[in-house]
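Two proteins, back to back. First:
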Amino acid sequence: MPRFRKRSQASDEGRSDAKIERQQVARLALWNPEHEGDDDSMAILLTQYGLYVESADKVSHRRGTTNNFFLLVNSAASVALAAFGLSSDEAAVLPLLFSAIIMISVCALWGFTVHSYRQLSSAKWQIVNALEERLPAAPWAAEWQLLDQGQSRRSYWRLTAVEKWVPGLFALVYAVGFLALAFFV
């Protein structure tokens, strides 16, 4: 068993090294050396910072709206499939299978979307933190420190930790529901 842990740790270290390298490349790409030391650079930086934080917040808002859409679609489908499944006979098994496959696919799409938004949000907040390194105050970085960088559930329960399970739970309900109907109808 320890052998597997070593491989896992090495893999995690490799991912950490790659992540650090990407962050360094992003920092280099972020700063325009032509504007270093300009008198107007702080005012421009503050404006860009404000716009970028607003952009990051809009991504978070779109993420919530997208999750609400998928939750509504899945809730409606669950109710419709349950009502159709309870009042059906053996002839309805094939349409229910097709519907379950479609909804499991929708759940997979939802899961990929959650993952994509997580990656985008993570990148945006890393850039916000890099911008704050040049500002007199770093409120977002300080807030993240107060939340133990999301490492402790006692301090902060990451939204993604919760939202990534919801599509899988819906998919499981569809699969179990179909199997129950298929075997007991």
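And the second protein:
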Amino acid sequence: MLKKRIIPCLDIRDGRTVKGVNFVNIRDAGDPVELAAAYAEQGADELVFLDITATIENRKTLANLVERIAAKINIPFTVGGGINTIDDVSVMLKAGADKITINSAAVRNPHLITDIAREFGSQCVVTAIDTKFRGNGWFVHIDGGRTPTELDTLVWAKRAEELGAGEILLTSMNNDGTREGFALSITRETASKLNIPVIASGGAGKMEHFSELFSGTGCSAALAASIFHYGDIKISQLKEYLYNEGVPVRI
């Protein structure tokens, strides 16, 4: 049986790790290089780095910071934010990323997914989807959650897979930073319709939320930020808890 992955996320703004609630009310959470090293030491399965203002500021991801983090860790490293071209991907991979994640750029130019997959392999392409429940369904948002679209989340996730995405990073904007638990329904639906791994993000507040996620959905991994950044839960403790709950994890 494939092991479930625990993935801390570094949301980066102005070179610092930050965290908000529902994509707003951003506050400082520490030095990203120090946090990355600590998470690798604690047993994180992977690490995600998201330059959360690169797209709206119309600039590239912070390659130098990516390089400094990559030098401190020995686990798979995914980088996103401001990636719009094959050249951007190449820069990040040379800086030490193992995978890249694209969100707004993929919505605006879906064939970017295919182009990256052809050049570097599907395993390199993580399509991030920021989704929000509005009215009667879950819809994709772009530009760091600032711009709503009429794109149905499930339809877009399936199309991203067909275009060549190797994984989906699904973040519920409704749950993000609330610490009230993951969005189980949309995660379950998305995972059930895809043949590629789904990483669930948004809402982790206690260890029970992770066991609920893994037992109640078909997702492959759980991504969290604030509970790790502020020391509420150590990754090693979480994994021991999950193992005792019967969730297959790497100890």
